[in-house]
TrEMBL record:
One of its GO terms (molecular function) is DNA-binding transcription factor activity. InterPro entries: ExsA-like_N, Homeodomain-like_sf, HTH_AraC, Tscrpt_reg_AraC-type_HTH. PROSITE patterns: HTH_ARAC_FAMILY_2. Residues 187-285 form the HTH araC/xylS-type domain. Keywords: DNA-binding, Transcription, Transcription regulation. It comes from Panacibacter ginsenosidivorans. This is Helix-turn-helix transcriptional regulator.
Length: 294
């Protein structure tokens, strides 16, 4: 999978501004592939300028076009590119530490009760309002300047945006997510795992997303789930693959990709170890049994 944050940060192909821990990027899709796996170790807003693109989480798809705004949590997604028009967007990457620092300064926004994010997805649609529209256009204009704008001004404008998000009930899902970053870290780890198990990420990547060393991540994971990360990930991927084999018409290669297996051969091997049939044999057997009413 391509690390979107590292790619745009280290590329000279995009107009960008780095301020403190924030990264503002005018992004134009350079990939010719229609489907692409992306991950980012930082959260980001995507303000869509033109074209059309789809972000796919494990269970849902989010198609966006000109004028739409989404918030993508740190982690992985599959994306689908449409080529009727060139896709352009303004991305604003925000690390967890920036959010934590902001909430520490504005402690009245914090809540003591643990936020339950089990109903949230890894992508959040953001309802447009006048302030968000104004903010997007101001960042777009800053990115077109030949000289870097005042850093303090950019920081103040972004903090103003965050304050408006917390004060608007239409953005409660997003503010709840921000607050959760300051709460129980093992619960936060569990949300990262539940939202990202179906991607071909390394254990080191999961540890990075959780702000832990690899050894600390393994210990914390074992304490929370009572099993190892590798065993849990394989079980979750197999459960998702089982559902897709039975309840979709996707081909086996596509199921392997969408469930995060290393490759199709690996998927077939571990599926057969569990179900004693290859995925295709299992699908055909279940189809025949369904047809004769068993």
């Amino acid at each position: 999978m391509i690390n979107l944050y590292s790619t745009v940060k280290n590329s000279n192909l995009f107009s960008k501004i780095e301020v403190s821990e924030l990264l503002f990027v005018e992004y134009t899709c350079m990939q010719e592939e229609t489907k692409l796996g992306l991950w980012s170790n930082n959260n980001y807003f995507a303000f869509i300028s033109s074209g059309k693109k789809m972000w796919r989480t494990i269970y849902h798809s989010y198609e966006v076009s000109d004028g739409d705004i989404i918030f993508v949590k740190k982690g992985a997604n599959l994306t689908h590119q449409f080529f009727e028009d060139k896709f352009c967007a303004v991305f604003v990457f925000i690390p967890d530490d920036f959010i934590k620092s902001f909430l520490k300064k504005n402690s009245a926004l914090l809540e003591t009760s643990q936020k339950d994010l089990s109903g949230q997805d890894a992508v959040l649609r953001i309802e447009k309002d006048e302030l968000l529209e104004t903010y997007y256009h101001s960042i777009q204009s800053y990115l077109s300047l030949s000289q870097k704008p005042n850093e303090q001004l950019l920081l103040l404008k972004f903090e103003e945006l965050l304050l408006s998000i917390f004060s608007n009930k239409n953005h409660k899902a997003l503010s709840d997510y921000f607050i959760s970053l300051c709460q129980d870290q093992e619960y936060h780890m569990s949300r990262i795992m539940e939202e990202n198990f179906a991607y071909n990420l390394k254990l080191e990547d999961y540890a990075q997303l959780c702000h832990m060393s690899l050894s600390a991540f393994k210990k914390s994971f074992k304490r929370y789930y009572l099993t190892t990360p590798a065993a849990w990930l394989q079980q979750k991927k197999l459960e998702l693959a089982y559902h897709k084999v039975l309840h979709t018409n996707l081909n086996i290669n596509r199921i392997s990709l969408e469930c995060g297996f290393e490759d199709t051969s690996h998927f077939i091997r571990v599926f057969k170890q569990k179900h004693h049939l290859t995925p295709l044999q299992f699908r055909l057997k279940q189809s025949k049994m369904s047809n004769i009413g068993i």
